[in-house]
Amino acid sequence: DSGVTQTPKHLITATGQRVTLRCSPRSGDLSVYWYQQSLDQGLQFLIQYYNGEERAKGNILERFSAQQFPDLHSELNLSSLELGDSALYFCASSSSGTVSYNSPLHFGNGTRLTVT
Amino acid sequence: SQQGEEDPQALSIQEGENATMNCSYKTSINNLQWYRQNSGRGLVHLILIRSNEREKHSGRLRVTLDTSKKSSSLLITASRAADTASYFCATDKLIFGTGTRLQVFP
Description:
The complex is a heterodimer of chains A (116) and B (106).
Chain A: E1 5-7, E2 10-13, E3 19-24, E4 31-38, E5 42-50, E6 53-57, E7 64-68, E8 74-78, E9 87-94, E10 105-107, E11 111-115
Parallel strand pairs in A: 2-11
Antiparallel strand pairs in A: 1-3, 3-8, 4-5, 4-9, 5-6, 7-8, 9-10, 9-11
Chain B: E1 5-7, E2 10-14, E3 19-24, E4 31-37, E5 43-50, E6 55-58, E7 61-66, E8 71-76, E9 85-91, E10 100-105
């Protein structure tokens, strides 16, 4: 068990809708990362938050947004959903007290999003 | 891009054999990490190697890093059916490649 909790595990919704994915990082971890994994594109980095502030941005669409709250949990909001947004969405956290890429990431088990 | 790219894309071996996976990247790095992903699950960190290290061991895992060639390899010795998974490398910018799918047959 990585200590990272993601909810919900599965989500089925229709095109055009909006969903929110939630992540609770491992206790003590300040950094949260969001990744999208689809069959044909591997693992794509979306965005990183550190202690409530956006720290790095990857291939995140404008229809997607995220935030990290004072209790360090994070939410990823996906709006105007399209069929191509169907994927596994992973949250990960890192144990470093400062922003550092020298610490391993601890992944949750993901939210499987299906857009119909 | 600092994306790691794994090679081969897929690998099938028998239990007891060794499995070698390679990772190439494009720019200078401070460290490189290897992860394993069982089907449909989150990634699990295996090992981190720093740019000033050439080789690192962890149990049946051996990782090498050649910064001059911008490449790394992961060797799993005496493989087991439970090693069946996808393996990813990630540079210190935490950009992952598409992974190597390893199938170990009993």
